[in-house]
Amino acid sequence: MKCGKQLSDEMEEYCRDCKGHGHAYDRGRSLYVYDDLIRESIARFKYGGRQEYARHYGIDMVNRLGSFISACRPDLMIPVPISKKKLISRGYNQAELVASHISRLTGIPVSDTIITRITDTLPMKELSRTERMKNLKGAFKIGDVDVKCRNVLIVDDIYTTGSTIDAMAALLKGHGVERVYFVTLSSGIII
Ligand SMILES: [Zn+2]
Q: Residue 189 Cα, ligand 1 centroid: separation in angstroms?
């Protein structure tokens, strides 16, 4: 109900992670379950230069999560930013590419300048929740948010614990945004 992860018990409403901790964001959904096929596809998209995958991902997002996205009534989409250093070495921000394809199909504007990443964080895969939060502290910088911007939809590639999205949601809400939602390509394992 909260993070959109698939649950093995269909009577449950919240995953273990959402039950145990509050989230700064309101709600989110992911497009695919994180299986081998999706993991490889996202890895090629992210690290293998296959930026053309963004078009397909964007179309799938709108086809399959379009009703969720419109129910959020987003005034703006914000892709999770990567640092300048990473942007130079990778050549593109994969989340931003997906967001721009969603925007092309829905008309929802995208901003990649309101929140910027000022520090590179350590890879988070192996970190605990507390370590992730420490790692993210001070990682983002926020600029001016339009007073008319009430609802924001964050776009990212993979959702795991939600700590990145929470950090951005907390910043946005501290700057007058009322609701923060997210969509990602994939969420972690079924729990
Ligand atoms: Zn959850």
A: 11
Q: Give yes or no for a contact between 158 and 42, defined as CB atoms under 8 angstroms apart.
A: yes
Q: What is the pLDDT of residues 70-103, one digit of tens each?
A: 999 999 999 999 999 999 999 999 999 999 999 9
Query: Ligand 1 centre and the CA of 79: distance in Å?
Result: 20
By the 8 A CB rule, do 39 and 188 touch? no
Q: Is residue 81 part of a domain?
A: yes
Instruction: Establish if 9 belongs to a structural domain.
Output: no
Q: Which residues fall inside 5 Å of ion ligand 1, going by CB?
A: 2-3, 5, 15, 17-18
Ligand 1 geometric centre to CA of 14 (Å): 5
**The pair of three-digit structure tokens given for residue 177, joined into one six-digit string:** 């945004």
Cα maximum dimension of the chain = 46
Query: Do the strands 151-159 and 115-117 form a parallel or antiparallel pair, or are they unpaired?
Result: unpaired
27 has which bridge partners?
181
Q: Which residue has the tokens 């949601």?
A: 169
Q: Which CATH number fits the domain that encloses residue 167?
A: 3.40.50
The identity of residue 98, as a single letter, is V
* Residue given tokens 């997210």 in the structure block: 182
